């Protein structure tokens, strides 16, 4: 086990003593070491109220082979060896002697687990308090730091007692769990937008749900973690809208110009405001729905109000869905504007009784994974004031990169038949209220028909409709600091969404951080080997509460999980840039790779259907060194590595080829080859319910990416292109059968530790049964290997 920690900051002695005092210790340097240790260790058992109970708790901890902690303290030690201190510390951190470590080898285990230790034996009271401060900041077996674990056991139970106005508490730069997450106001309000997406002549009202600690009633102004969640009120899981993978690929006869595919925003019509008939500080509607995001729940007891809103077209709101359109961006922005005092909200949809976010300190962060994180990027590109930071996990930065690729319709995550109209239906939870639907059905039918038409499944080109949904067009407007988290094996929201977003903000005068893990479409919050939530606490305490903890400088710019060494994370200043730390290697497909032939027939669809395979089966089979698809692909081996290398960045493929049809799908896969136990792309549970989000509150299971069974190969990256889209996704060129042409396209970004003895292979094939249309026309491909190149970037 390795417990990597980047969120702990250095503190001088004066700061340590002040913070220890603030959380309830009594560090007196004139006190004897024995008295200091006796007092301090007793406080580490907050569930023990009486002296007898505390002594029993101390006696349950072993110091060495002869003494328990109660006996050791009773002996009034004048010094404490590091071995003894950390033998005790490890038990306080949740580890078990004999099972996890040996008492006499505590320092060895601390080093192996990557836990920090003091440099020398504890000889003075000052040494002791320094060691105790470090221990409180040290991660436990259960994901969080010791002080965080103590808080979940009641350490701060009485912190607010006797205070007229509740107070925040910070330790090592992070907000502490001193507010009661069990006692919250669950309120619903309706925010007046500038839109009328359902064309009823009225401004769309946006239902918004607030989870607000009751301490705000006593005058505490709190920041907000806002999650724009289209799934908050449920989904419409219906099959009728799902498309079938088309067996034909259309020949394109029209090519677009850049101007033709550039979206120009329109100014909304000025609509009358709802008259204000009164004002209230109290909401009229209680939310019976719980929070939907574990990190928000974790921060609630640390003094962060959490807010959810589904946006237009979701249950309780007006309007219709647009799947990433400007109306969904404007929905999120409207919520932020209300939270920061720049927009009206009402206690219900009709009476005109205004309610303000009087409890908000005017600072907002957006959080969320997938669609939720996508809308945080969208809102950030508006430049809205008051949005201080966005934390997007597995998020889309351009919807074209989600549902399309280089002139092709693609299926995210292998979910064949999904598209923008399918997601619009899925998230149109307004229809769950049948009475509301009576007045909106006709308008919704028209809207859905327009989405189906404009998404254009026939040709798959980048159009003005997709340009509206490309948030990277507006990155220059971002003023909020940014955290991006993404899985390197996320074939649902592919890594290109994160890396193109990351690359696009490099010149902006904002703070920015990137986290890349080895998983699929998943959270990083509860992954044990990294202190992700602790780093986010440090970040948000700085961004939203003004704590001068140096978070932008303290946290690494880039954190990447290793794909070979378990529980290992690397930190860098940048990712995949063209600089002195990287080198580009172009591989000629004829001279630098080994291939048995230069052409193949794309008859994969026939093989797929004959074997009645599914998307997962195809993805597993196509990358095998020996596969039933051997005849329908080219397999090109690169030489085996003689030493460990790290591939990092965006692979690029340039192919010179000819085909015997007027159009075709061309796919490429980059594969790590060599028998090895590789990580499963889905993290497994290592501690069921082991993460306590607060005192007497919710729990979440802790997970970790673990090596799975041995395999001969693993997908590293891939890409697809319509051979008529030889320059970009909107310009089309005619293809003459038998006439050579060239295509250039990027594969998905990656970071791959390739050990000595293993090698990369490039697979070139036609239709992708998991990701593209399943075309039935057999296309014969002929690759000019001598005129074709794969370019890879390596970290030196």
From TrEMBL:
Its EC number is 3.4.14.11. Keywords: Aminopeptidase, Hydrolase, Protease, Serine protease. Residues 537-791 form the Xaa-Pro dipeptidyl-peptidase C-terminal domain. SMART domains: PepX_C (SM00939), PepX_N (SM00940). GO terms for biological process: proteolysis. InterPro entries: AB_hydrolase_fold, Galactose-bd-like_sf, Pept_S15_Xpro, PepX_N_dom, PepX_N_dom_sf, Xaa-Pro-like_dom, Xaa-Pro_dipept_C. It catalyses: Hydrolyzes Xaa-Pro-|- bonds to release unblocked, N-terminal dipeptides from substrates including Ala-Pro-|-p-nitroanilide and (sequentially) Tyr-Pro-|-Phe-Pro-|-Gly-Pro-|-Ile. Pfam families: Peptidase_S15, PepX_C, PepX_N. One of its GO terms (molecular function) is aminopeptidase activity. Residues 1-155 form the X-Prolyl dipeptidyl aminopeptidase PepX N-terminal domain. Belongs to the peptidase S15 family. Removes N-terminal dipeptides sequentially from polypeptides having unsubstituted N-termini provided that the penultimate residue is proline. Homodimer. This is Xaa-Pro dipeptidyl-peptidase.
């Amino acid at each position: 086990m390795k417990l990597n920690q980047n969120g702990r900051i250095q503190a001088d002695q004066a700061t340590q003593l002040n913070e220890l005092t603030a959380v309830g210790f009594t560090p007196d340097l004139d006190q004897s070491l024995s008295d200091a240790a006796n007092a301090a260790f007793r406080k580490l058992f907050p569930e023990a109220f009486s002296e007898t109970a505390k002594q029993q708790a101390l006696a349950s901890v072993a110091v060495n082979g002869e003494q328990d902690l109660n006996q050791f303290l009773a002996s009034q030690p004048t010094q404490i060896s590091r071995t003894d201190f950390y033998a005790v510390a490890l038990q306080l951190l949740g580890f078990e002697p004999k099972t996890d470590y040996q008492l006499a080898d505590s320092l060895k285990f601390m080093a192996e687990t990557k836990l920090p230790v003091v440099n020398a034996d504890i000889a003075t009271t000052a040494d002791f308090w320094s060691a105790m401060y470090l221990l409180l900041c040290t991660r436990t077996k259960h994901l969080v730091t010791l002080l965080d674990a103590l808080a979940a056991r009641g350490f701060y139970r009485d912190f607010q007692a006797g205070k007229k106005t509740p107070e925040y508490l910070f330790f090592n730069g992070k907000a502490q769990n001193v507010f009661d997450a069990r006692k919250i106001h669950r309120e619903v309000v309706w925010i007046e937008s500038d839109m009328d997406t359902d064309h009823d002549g009225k401004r769309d009202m946006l239902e918004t749900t607030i989870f607000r600690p009751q301490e705000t009633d006593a005058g505490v102004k709190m920041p907000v973690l806002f999650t724009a969640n289209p799934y908050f009120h449920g989904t419409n899981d219906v099959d009728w809208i799902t498309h079938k993978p088309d067996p034909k690929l259309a020949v394109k006869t029209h090519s677009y110009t850049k101007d033709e595919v550039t979206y120009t925003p329109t100014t909304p019509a000025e609509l009358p405001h709802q008259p204000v008939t009164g004002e209230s500080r109290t909401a009229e509607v209680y939310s019976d729905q719980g929070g939907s995001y574990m990190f928000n729940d974790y921060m609630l007891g640390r003094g962060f109000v959490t807010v959810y809103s589904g946006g237009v077209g979701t249950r309780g709101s007006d309007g219709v869905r647009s799947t990433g359109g400007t109306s969904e961006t404007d929905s999120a922005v409207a919520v932020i504007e209300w939270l920061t005092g720049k927009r009206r909200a009402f206690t219900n949809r009709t009476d005109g009784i205004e309610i303000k976010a009087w409890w908000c300190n005017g600072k907002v962060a957006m959080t969320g994974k997938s669609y939720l994180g996508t809308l945080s990027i969208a809102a950030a590109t508006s430049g809205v004031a008051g949005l201080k930071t966005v934390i997007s996990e597995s998020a889309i930065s351009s919807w074209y990169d989600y549902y399309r690729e280089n002139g092709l319709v693609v299926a995210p995550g292998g979910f064949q038949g999904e598209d923008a109209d399918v997601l619009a239906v899925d998230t149109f939870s307004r229809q769950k209220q049948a009475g509301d639907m009576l007045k909106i059905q006709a308008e919704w039918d028209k809207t859905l028909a327009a989405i189906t038409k404009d998404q254009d499944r026939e040709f798959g080109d980048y159009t003005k409709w997709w340009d509206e949904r490309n948030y990277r067009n507006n990155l220059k407007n971002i003023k909020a600091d940014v955290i991006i988290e993404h899985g390197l094996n996320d074939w649902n929201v592919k890594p290109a969404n994160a890396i193109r977003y990351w690359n696009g903000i490099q010149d902006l005068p904002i703070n920015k951080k990137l986290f890349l893990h080895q998983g699929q479409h998943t959270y990083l919050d509860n992954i044990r080997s990294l202190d992700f939530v602790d780093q986010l606490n440090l970040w948000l305490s700085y961004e939203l509460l003004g704590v001068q903890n140096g978070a932008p400088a303290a946290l690494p710019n880039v954190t990447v999980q290793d794909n070979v060494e378990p529980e290992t994370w690397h930190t860098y200043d940048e990712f995949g840039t063209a600089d002195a730390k990287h080198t580009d290697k172009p591989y000629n497909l004829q001279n630098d790779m080994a291939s048995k032939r230069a052409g193949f027939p794309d008859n994969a669809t026939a093989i797929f259907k004959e074997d009645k395979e599914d998307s997962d089966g195809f993805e597993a089979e196509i990358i095998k060194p020996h596969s039933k698809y051997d005849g329908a692909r080219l397999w090109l081996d690169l030489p085996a590595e003689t030493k460990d290398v790290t591939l990092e960045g965006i692979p690029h493929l340039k192919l010179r080829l000819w085909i015997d049809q007027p159009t075709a799908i061309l796919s490429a896969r980059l594969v790590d080859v060599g028998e090895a136990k590789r990580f499963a792309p889905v993290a497994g549970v290592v501690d069921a319910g082991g993460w306590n989000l607060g005192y007497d509150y919710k729990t979440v299971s802790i997970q970790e990416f673990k090596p799975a069974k041995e395999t001969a190969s693993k997908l590293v990256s891939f890409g697809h292109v319509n051979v008529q889209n030889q320059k970009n996704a909107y310009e089309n060129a005619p293809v003459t059968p038998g006439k050579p042409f060239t295509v250039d396209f990027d594969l998905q970004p990656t970071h791959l530790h390739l050990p000595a003895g293993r090698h990369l292979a490039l697979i070139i094939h036609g239709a992708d049964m998991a990701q593209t249309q399943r075309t039935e026309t057999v296309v014969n491909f002929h690759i000019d290997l001598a005129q074709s190149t794969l370019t890879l970037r390596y970290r030196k």
